[in-house]
Design brief:
The structure is a single chain. The chain has a single domain (about 1-135), classed as Lipocalin (Beta Barrel), CATH 2.40.128. About 0% of the residues lie in helices and about 70% in strands. It has strands spanning about 1-5, 10-25, 25-35, 45-55, 60-65, 75-80, 85-95, 100-110, 115-120, 125-135. It has a ten-stranded antiparallel β-sheet with strand order 1-2-3-4-5-6-7-8-9-10, with no helix packed on it. The two termini are about 15 Å apart.
């Protein structure tokens, strides 16, 4: 279980799982988050799961989302590997023209520990940041 900071005033318990698998032309990733409110009156749970395949581009360390993503009616994602850090960017444009940019950074510290950094920006204004450490259950 992770305790992550989601804003200056909000704290939530999170259970985070993810799996990265090498493929012939890149990699696939599946990640799930279960968020529980820490307010005892409202112990609500919210779960989300995302999976995506990425393929190598002609640029070293840069991967594009497999298939054809379109930020105007869905999402477009790309990934970059820099040393021990995998960064996945995700963009979408809302019906009223607002650009949403999500950034997921995962840095491998040890074989069993990863530092996670997440941010969400709307039209270049950061509205959420979450950071924490993920440790493998043994």
């Amino acid at each position: 279980m992770n305790k992550g900071s989601t804003s200056e005033t909000e704290t939530a318990d999170r259970h985070i799982q993810f799996q990265i698998t090498k493929t012939a032309r890149g990699f696939s990733i599946i990640w799930s988050t279960i968020k529980r409110s820490v307010k005892k009156q409202a112990r609500k749970k919210k779960q989300s799961t995302t999976s995506e395949r990425f393929s190598q581009t002609t640029r070293p360390g840069i991967f594009k989302m497999a298939g054809r993503g379109n930020p105007m009616n869905g999402r477009y994602r790309w990934a970059a590997i820099n040393g021990r850090t995998l960064i996945i960017h995700s963009i979408a444009v809302s019906s009223d023209g607002v650009l949403e940019h999500l950034t997921y950074g995962r840095t491998l510290v040890t074989r069993d520990e990863i530092i996670l950094n997440f941010s969400r920006a709307l039209d270049d204004k950061v509205v959420r940041r979450v950071s924490g450490t993920i440790r493998r259950k043994l």
